[in-house]
Amino acid sequence: MSEPPLRLAGVERRYRSGAGELPVLRGADLTLSAGEIVALVAPSGTGKSTLLHLAGLLERPDGGEVFVEGRAAGTLADDARTAIRRATIGFVYQFHHLLPEFTAEENIALPQMAAGVARGAARARARDLLAAFGLSGREGHRPGKLSGGEQQRVAIARALANRPRILLADEPTGNLDVGTSERVFAELLDEVRGHGVAALVATHNPDLARRMDRIVTLREGRVVPA
User: Sign of the CA dihedral 175, 178, 180, 184?
Assistant: First the structure.
């Protein structure tokens, strides 16, 4: 039986300040299967972003472990975590963080080229993804010439450019109006489900959450069914 793309086992995270330690995660467990899309719905301040950062190997846990395709990865050295993240994980933020001086096509091609993909192949993949997200004809536009919804679609396409097995999204439609949010999310679901990606999506939108395979929340620093 193959290992799940992502498994968090007893993950703990504490933040330190002059007032002492603030425990945020207290033994969180979560498993994502290939092709499964899980909604993470919890109030602000309960640790959603922290959980996503640990799952995405952007932070190290203070206890427990993050397993990526069966490999203990959360406590590896920074360069090893970076290599796994680049090869395996895509991340989408609420704000797109596109590079303003580059076109939509270039924003999607650059991460591929950083991973060793030839320029021509990277640009072809970028154009295919832009077409999948309804952005044919916008390849040469810089972010400032795109609408908010178009920018977020480019950001999602960029996250999928290196064919990750895991997609982590932190309020990916939280900065969009309702109609645009629905369109962008539908395109995200189609692309992720169509390629068997394991996805964890933090959202405050209950309608979007109900369209995913299951919903979890954070309670007292642990992941529980919502």
Answer: positive
